Amino acid sequence: MSKSCYPDFVAGRGAPVNRLSRRFNLHQRTDDGEWLDERSQIDEDIPPLKTEVAIERPKTILARNTSPDIPFDKSVNPYRGCEHGCIYCYARASHAYHDLSPGLDFESRLFAKPDAARLLRIEIGKKGHVPTPIAFGTNTDAYQPIEREWRIMRQCIEVLAEANHPLTITTKSDRVLRDLDLLAPMAAKRLVAVAISVTMLDPALHRILEPRTARPEKRLAALTALAEAGIPAHVNVAPVIPAINDHEIEAILERAAEAGAQTASWIPLRLPHEVAPLFQDWLICHFPDRAAKVMAIVRSIREGRNNDPNFFSRMRGSGPWADLIQTRFRIAARKYGLNQTKIQLRSDLFVPPRSDGQLALF
Question: I need a labelling partner for 180 at 20 to 30 A (CA). Which of 137, 237, 277, 283 fits?
């Protein structure tokens, strides 16, 4: 990519600019102040943007979901923002609520919730709690790089393991393997399933589309390690971006099945709010020859818009292109033996934890 496209482009990051939201009448930032490092005069490949982490202390940690097209009713997000830097991430728009840019701020100005495990213990210990699977990784990745030091995700798993509470994990990181000592025993009780998102196999595309995620080969290796540990493994091909990565659908499913995945799913590109202009900036920088074509197909899937917020159709799209992708996916999944069985977790083993860290007998 030429820096003449966006002179302030930061190497090693996903968003080419630091656009601010117009939904809340925020001013357009002209420079990044203390959030930008000194530009290296020696090696321009050194990413000049530091990752900064602030502490967030919420009063609750369980997020409730009532959307009819989402297969879970509770989720936990140990972090806000995501260092992975995936340009298409629909969660980018949420940073605007904090007067921060959904662009570079989203992937460099992060929030950690160190009280998450303590709050989780309290909330699942409340009278009347229904132990349906708690989803992790639904908004931002719980295994993004800062989890290495903060270990908030691991602490949450420890609480759920004590209570025999089911959970699901979606991640683009092989860092999930660090917690096999907790997850494997839970899997033996049918309490956990893990989805690994594999968006592409092409390493060149990976470097610009998901710059700080684990390489595709490492994710496939993680699927194998999970399967060998007896943990139900799912592959999520998401998002499918027409004319960018859709040609790899069949190859991804073949490799994932060989790696040990049992089930598979896909989601077409979603571009809510500020994500749409950021993605278009990215297209212009990296694929100027096909930017207009990509957006034309995206809009054809979304009934002429950049995004479709409606339940059910937002997860599948509509029109000939969406139907074609769905047909290809189903044929490939059947060919490689995926989705022959459904992963089902147990909730009848749950024992409410006490606030002092001990398990209640009754």
Answer: 237
> In the chain, where are the structural domains located?
49-266
Burial letters 259-275, b for 16+ CB under 10 A, else e:
bbbbbbbbbbbbbbbbb
User: Comparing C-alpha atoms, which of 117, 111, 108, 262 is closest to residue 196?
Assistant: 262
CA dihedral 49, 53, 54, 60 (to 10 degrees): 130
Each residue of 210-255: pLDDT tens digit?
999 999 999 999 999 999 999 999 999 999 999 999 999 999 999 9
Pick the CATH number of 49-266 from 3.20.20.70, 2.60.40.10, 2.30.30.110, 3.20.20.140: 3.20.20.70
Q: Are 35 and 52 in contact (CB under 8 A)?
A: yes
| Contact between residue 167 and residue 157 where contact means Cβ atoms under 8 Å apart | yes
Q: How many whole angstroms separate alpha carbon 311 and alpha carbon 300? A: 17
The pTM score is: 0.86
